[in-house]
Amino acid sequence: MMRAILRKSSSSSAALRRTLAASLSSFETAAPSAELPRSFMNGQISRFSVFGRPDVAPGWGAVKGFHAAASGPLNFRASVTSSAEYAVDDYASYDEEKVAKGGNSGEEGLEIAKLGIAPEIVSALAEKGITKLFPIQRAVLEPAMQGRDMIGRAKTGTGKTLAFGIPIMDKITKFNAKHGRGRNPLALVLAPTRELARQVEKEFYETASNLDTICVYGGTPISRQMNQLNYGVDVVVGTPGRIIDLLKRGALNLEEVKFVVLDEADQMLAVGFEEDVETILQRLPKSRQSMMFSATMPNWIRSLTKKYLNNPLTIDLVGDDDQKLAEGISLYSIPAAMQGKASIIGPLFTEHAKGGKCIVFTQTKRDADRLAYAMARSYRCEALHGDISQSQRERTLAGFRDGQFNILVATDVAARGLDIPNVDLVIHYELPNSSEIFVHRSGRTGRAGKKGTAILIYTPDQTRAVRVIERDVGCRFTEVNTQALLHVLF
Fold first, then answer.
1. Motif Q motif: residue span (predicted)?
2. Share of the chain above pLDDT 70, in %
């Protein structure tokens, strides 16, 4: 009976949205121009009917859990998915070749419509043109449905978001259909950057719009996020720093979380979130499903695995192959004097991007500004770095995605977690500080099975560093003669 009260009334959702938008504006006089979260603007506010409950007053009512506790994640029994037979040896590396050759694991076995997941999720994916699973999604699906803890090691750009998203969305959708909705989140996804967090939440929202999702990160009014959490959500996606802030304020209750995911876990370490991540994991219920996805496996991640994962299954799409980049990325290197590097960016863009999108990586904010200013004389180009305000950052990224300009000059910190579709070319204007950063930079292209190109510009005294990248990543650059390139194009 109580759960029936909490179900969304489609006939009143528009009126509720207008009423709440008006009330929220009174809370946010300090930031009147900020946009409402997606859930408010798109009518996904099923929890607002909580005002109809006699035991909860409007506004900041006492947080009360409605999800019944059960053994295992939502006490869910995996559906039969024999048509998506996966080739994972328990406690062993995942062998992609076995899937290619084994049993029913061919093309027919990849069809999402045959996997027994919620029809609304299948339909939403089909509308996005996704009807089959990539290798990591196929390998993860069945053990995730069974509630297994797992570590997924995959090359950048191989579809990790849907790999963990599909099982979580399916379980919560079916649970809510049976039991109604609660107030506290059932799933928590941690991401190292706001861009990656926004992208992950976008995947959840677009694939399961019947679920209430929220994306939380710094640089935006925390009171808006607190208001939305108070009304109730199914899935929280966010950066560890903002999650900690919300916990300290008592606005986020993690007592009912059944699923926790660390996405791009190796980058959590790179941006200094180690302590925050462990603090959050310590606040979660012990009875939960934990999944961790990463392109690399540094010692910190191995330590997290031992402390916070329960008998995890390892799904390794890299294995003994040191090649950590997705297939389909062509790699080139170009030697150039320091003072001549800027002059070859334009020809490289013309030759290899062919009018598409290009990201140029620099080491410093100053170089990003200078290079973007110089290139803007001949190309549509913008800079992205840490000194740019959050609102301007979002406008810049939206313009790049929408094709208003097609060259983005970015620093490593500013570009972490970016998921821009259809990037044709990545140029390493300056060498990355590590092979892992090279992998993450280059992984901005060639995503989801598409082709892409990454070009490394280096000075003669950096030749040894280029060889180190080749050794660590397991790749080989095709060297391009600078003079020949300039001669051909000019």
1. 110-138
2. 71
